[in-house]
Design a protein that fits this description.
The chain has 227 residues and is an alpha/beta fold. It has two domains: 148 residues, HAD superfamily/HAD-like (Rossmann fold), CATH 3.40.50; 67 residues. The strands form two sheets. A six-stranded parallel sheet has the order 5-4-1-6-7-8, with helices on both faces. A two-stranded antiparallel ribbon has the order 2-3. β6, α7 and β7 form a beta-alpha-beta unit. α3 packs parallel to α5. The protein is globular, with a radius of gyration of 17 Å. Bound molecules: magnesium ion. Magnesium ion binds next to loops.
């Protein structure tokens, strides 16, 4: 019996490109719920947790970083996000659907999420593209400021889903930013970097992933390492 392999997928830039629907929903929330017009700042989004992005936006706009304001923000964000997803013409990235179908058909693979999105936001984004049914567990960005802590949550969720401890050496973190690679390291997992997001192959190579792919059409290379 081969060892169970656990694949933990990032969402934005890895599985889908939403045409920046998430970012647009963040800004619409600031505008409509907190009455701040279009932003002039350089808060980074890529690879980060939604909780940490909200903290930075609050800091920038001098909104008090309280649980009440955070809850108010996400409640409004979850109303904006489906509107933005509908309006932005996003796409499922190359190779993604074929890979998920292939992995879902195997008894020795478990598929989960490792994303900075909130759990509700992740469900909205993947549901929009008809991909949510492939994912049974995950780590999310609702509470954590640091992606490394999301990785720990995802690893624990994998263990709970499978009903046994998961060896990090059988875990594959698949993402499109250096932060995805870093959080794979934090839990002792393999890092698979894919250049379909905001980072080039060269930029990702500098972060030294275990496997570097142009897109998930090339994911056979990852599966080849399991046998
Ligand atoms: Mg990403």
């Amino acid at each position: 019996m081969p060892a169970m392999q656990v694949c933990l997928f990032d969402i934005d830039g890895t599985l889908i490109n939403t045409g920046r629907a998430g970012r647009a929903a963040f800004y619409a929330t600031l505008e409509h719920e907190f009455q701040f017009p279009a932003p002039h700042h350089d808060v980074a989004f890529s690879g980060r947790t939604d909780r940490s992005i909200v903290r930075d936006l609050f800091h920038h706009h001098e909104i008090e970083n309280t649980p009440e304001n955070t809850s108010r923000f996400f409640t409004a964000y979850w109303k904006q996000l489906p509107l933005m997803l509908n309006g932005r013409g996003g796409v499922v990235l190359p190779g993604v659907e074929a890979l998920l179908v292939q992995l879902a058909g195997r008894q020795d693979v478990a598929i989960g999420l490792l994303t900075g999105n909130t759990q509700i936001g992740a469900g909205m984004k993947l549901g929009h593209f008809g991909l949510m049914q492939y994912f049974s567990f995950g780590g999310y960005g609702d509470q954590h400021l640091d992606r490394n802590h999301v990785a720990a949550e995802a690893l624990q969720a994998a263990g709970e889903f499978l009903g046994k401890n998961v060896e990090p050496t059988n875990v594959w973190v698949i993402g499109d930013t250096p932060l995805d690679i870093r959080c794979a390291r934090a839990i002792g997992a393999h890092a698979v970097a894919v250049a379909t997001g905001g980072h080039s192959l060269d930029e990702l190579a500098q972060a030294k992933p275990d496997l570097l792919l142009a897109d998930l059409d090339a994911a056979e290379e990852m599966l080849g390492r399991w046998s």
